[in-house]
UniProtKB/TrEMBL annotation, chain A:
Protein name: Iron(3+)-hydroxamate import ATP-binding protein FhuC
Its biological purpose: Part of the ABC transporter complex HmuTUV involved in hemin import. Responsible for energy coupling to the transport system.
Leader sequence residues: none
PANTHER family, per database record: HEMIN IMPORT ATP-BINDING PROTEIN HMUV
Organism: Pseudogemmobacter humi
Isomerase keyword on record: no
Gene Ontology molecular function: ATP binding; ATP hydrolysis activity
Source superkingdom: Bacteria
Family in the record: Belongs to the ABC transporter superfamily.
From TrEMBL, chain B:
CDD domains in alphabetical order: TM_ABC_iron-siderophores_like
Subcellular location as annotated: Cell membrane
Membrane-related topology note: Multi-pass membrane protein
Protein name: Fe(3+) dicitrate transport system permease protein FecD
Record gene name: fecD_2
Main location: membrane
Superkingdom field: Bacteria
Residues passing through the membrane, by range: 77-97, 104-123, 129-150, 162-181, 251-278, 290-308, 320-340
GO cellular component: plasma membrane
A family per Pfam: FecCD
Length: 255, 346
């Protein structure tokens, strides 16, 4: 499933949050979105998910403009995990994951045993099956994040949009989550803060001031010059002797 | 829904629950008919029903028959419809606004409906073509539109909605008082003030044919959208990402809420607390999923308002206490209990 943005943009009160983004994401690709705070990563994800009101330009799923596709059908293809989506309802973990089945159900096709199995599998995939009965308000930030991911998995999407999914997670769960995501047979667009984690993506898009400043394979995109200009850090490239992978060590550069 | 529950086939389970709900509702309605200032024996009530429903021709005192059929039955049915309608309005508003305080009373919908109804009765707005219910619907729609616009202008969060609702209800309550002070004579003013507190004494059969269909239609609309209401738990963006056509669902459900509130207010005045307390009580019983919450809240609201109406007739012999007073007297401590026990559980 191919997702593409054509001159996509979004403004609030005359201020351009995202502008003139052209982007094409191919089937099966893991595409990382990086950029400093406030550079428009979350807004771009909302545009790609088709849930930003009054969007400029166009986002297409294969060759169909998103705004022409019924919401329900979009949700059967695209799952979106926002940052910090919270609820005051006393939902259980299982309830929250069952919400992922919403686009596949209707009053005339109610929740079935197949749906229950899908929900169970999603809970197991994020390691939350043993907490299925826990109430939302008793979960930690990281547990909530994993429930959101499970909800998105239960949606059985072909395209997964994740907004900084590793926030709140301890290092073990960060790594399991990234491995889980990269092993999924779906297209993934993932906003990340950790540039070393971003190295694991097939391609990266660098956001700066609402615009897509660069797109390409991680090694090409994350040059020392760009890291200094956009992220305002110096970086040394190190090589892990275990597997030859490149990683960064960052240090402050004086303004 | 747990896995264990999913193993029981859906249809029998659904039928058993529907039957249980109907039985509870029917029992409450019968109790509402039997109890009152002069409790009537069950045999008399049964005979009066038989006479009116299938011309059984049983010997019943015509006065008893009149009390039962012309007075208590419509009154109880309207109480049930109002209780269900107001409780559903609360369920929907709490889900859409994502605020535990949201109900038609607090968000100004009831106040707008009162203003509309009073404008039609006293000022003669609409020249008789509108009717009290029509006026109430216009007032309720106007009030909710105003509150929603104000909340949006203030930033659009759940807290802004409640603050805007408070401003809206103050404004519309003031308008109602203004209309009364300006144009009503003392007798009218007394009647309206009594009606505003909630009053089922004037209810007759024509009111039933308005209240019951509106409550049933509103119930079906809410039940049809139960999954959509669930999807709003994490906000409207999350609902949209789950495939809910947010704008259309909001219009349909808020339309249903406005219609139910306006109808109920135009018939029996603005009764507070049902829309706020019953949804919380129902959540406490069956949890936050709307597939169960909607029917349970509707039945609980109906039963609660029937009970409140019976209490309003029996509390002080020879005098009817406004039902709004009873709902608040029972509702406030009940709500406190829910808050405390909910905290202990959470």
């Amino acid at each position: 499933m191919r997702l593409s943005a054509h001159n996509a943009g979004w403004s609030v009160r005359g201020r351009e949050v995202v502008a003139a983004v052209d982007l094409e994401i191919g089937p099966g690709e893991t595409f990382g979105l990086i950029g400093p705070n406030g550079s428009g990563k979350s807004t771009l994800l909302r545009l790609l998910a088709g849930i930003a009101p009054r969007a400029k330009g166009e986002v297409r799923l294969d060759d169909r403009p998103l705004h022409r596709i019924p919401r329900r059908e979009i949700a059967q293809h695209i799952a979106f995990v926002e940052q910090q989506a919270d609820t005051a309802e006393a939902l259980s973990v299982r309830d929250a994951v069952e919400l992922g089945r919403t686009p596949w159900l209707s009053p005339l096709t109610p929740f079935s045993s197949t749906d229950a199995e899908i929900v169970e599998a999603a809970l197991t995939a994020v390691g939350m099956a043993h907490m299925a009965a826990r109430i939302w308000s008793t979960l930690s930030g990281g547990e909530r994040q994993r429930v959101h991911i499970a909800r998105a998995l239960a949606q059985h999407p072909r395209l997964l949009l994740l907004d900084e999914p590793t926030n709140h997670l301890d290092i073990h769960h960060q790594l399991t989550l990234l491995r889980l995501v990269s092993n999924l047979p779906v297209t993934v667009v993932i906003a990340l803060h950790d540039l070393n984690q971003a190295m694991g993506c097939d391609r990266l898009g660098v956001m700066e001031g609402g615009r897509l400043a660069a797109v390409g394979p991680p090694a090409e995109v994350l040059t020392p010059e760009r890291l200094a200009a956009i992220f305002r850090v110096g970086a040394s490239r190190l090589t892990d002797p275990a597997d030859g992978a490149t990683l960064f060590r960052f240090h402050c550069i004086e303004d | 829904m747990s896995l264990a529950a999913a193993r029981v086939p859906l249809l029998p389970r659904l039928m058993a629950r529907t039957a249980a709900g109907a039985a509870v509702l029917l029992a409450a309605i019968l109790a509402g008919v039997i109890l009152g200032e002069t409790p009537l024996p069950w045999e008399t009530v049964r005979a009066a029903f038989a006479n009116n429903l299938w011309q059984a021709g049983l010997p019943v005192d015509p006065i008893d028959q009149g009390i039962i059929w012309a007075y208590r039955v419509p009154r109880t049915l309207v109480a049930a419809a109002c209780g269900a309608g107001l409780a559903l309005a609360g369920v929907v508003l709490q889900a859409l606004v994502r605020n535990a305080l949201a109900d038609p009373y607090l968000l100004g919908v009831s106040a707008g409906a009162s203003t509309g109804a009073v404008a039609v009765t006293i000022l003669g707005v609409g020249g008789g073509a509108l009717g009290i219910s029509g006026g109430a619907f216009l007032g309720a729609t106007l009030a909710f539109g105003l509150v929603a616009a104000l909340a949006r202008a203030a930033g659009g969060g759940p807290a802004q909605m409640v603050l805007a609702g408070i401003a809206g209800s103050q404004l519309f309550n003031a308008l109602t008082s203004f209309f009364i002070a300006k144009s009503a004579n003392a007798e009218q003013a007394r009647g309206i003030m009594f009606w505003l507190l909630g009053n089922l004494s004037g209810v007759r059969w024509p009111d039933v044919t308005l209240a019951v269909p509106v409550a049933v239609a509103g119930f079906l609309a809410c039940l049809w959208h139960a999954r959509a209401l669930d999807a709003f738990a994490f906000g409207q963006d999350a609902a949209a990402a789950l495939g809910i056509p947010v704008r259309r669902v909001r219009i349909v459900l808020i339309g249903a809420v406005t219609l139910m509130t306006a109808t109920m207010v135009s018939l029996v005045g603005s009764i507070g607390f049902v829309g706020l307390v019953i949804p919380h009580a129902a959540r406490f019983l069956v949890g936050p999923r709307h597939g169960r919450l909607v029917p349970v809240a509707a039945i609980a609201g109906a039963v609660f308002l029937i009970a409140a109406d019976v209490a309003s007739r029996m509390l002080i012999p020879g005098q009817v206490v406004p039902i709004g007073v009873v709902t608040a007297l029972v509702g406030a401590p009940g709500f406190a209990l829910i808050l405390i026990r909910g905290r202990a559980r959470g």
